[in-house]
Amino acid sequence: MRLLLVEDDVMVASGIKLGLTDAGYAVDWVGSAERAIEVSRSEVFDVAIIDLGLPSMDGLALTQRLRKDGHAMPVMILTARDALHDRVQGLDMGADDYMVKPFELPELLARLRALLRRSQAATSSVLSFGRLELDTATRLACIRSGADAPSLPLELGPREWTVMEYLLINAPKPANKDKLLQALTGWDKEITPNAVEVYISRLRGKLEPHGIALRSIRGFGYRLELTAAPEADGHGAVS
After folding, report:
1. pLDDT at position 202, please?
2. Is the domain 2-119 a CATH 3.20.20.190 member?
3. Global pTM?
4. DSSP strands (E only) in the chain
């Protein structure tokens, strides 16, 4: 998932970006509302995290501007103000959530997951397709076995996880390759379309033995599909 962080305090922004990046998000940081408006016209983000006390144009005005420009991405407001009036005003002007500083990173991550679920019309932190399950809260993936057999853990690298999560969010519809590329990286890191193919190939090797295929859609992207798979034994192995 790709996040836009709008925060004018360099130290605060660095700490938040580091925590979010460690949690597997691609994070782009800007220090002003004007810059946020500029990048939102050319880039696609899954969530915007906006500090209320920005110079020139504050976070509430920025949120309102983004909504007027047609951006539907969830917006989380960060602020040192904890008055009821401020929270109500923020929500009324288009924000989806409101966190008061100082806050703990685990709470921020949990609130982000809730915003993403809401925007994707999901009710659980667990994404599934066939026998595959991804728990976005614990960041654990597994292949479900029979009723009396344990699930088989599925090892995914950080970028493999991002690709898999994006594919599951879109399933059964195809996932756009360009948007997948944006979900994998921010401005400070570059990844080529050919590198995406590498991750897709790796995931194919891990999913196909369990009845899940990754089909390429020419000129668009990739789609998860169910196929016939060998029966799993009580230890999660296939025969």
Report:
1. 94
2. no
3. 0.69
4. 2-6, 26-30, 47-51, 75-79, 97-100, 126-129, 132-135, 140-143, 152-153, 175-176, 212-217, 221-226
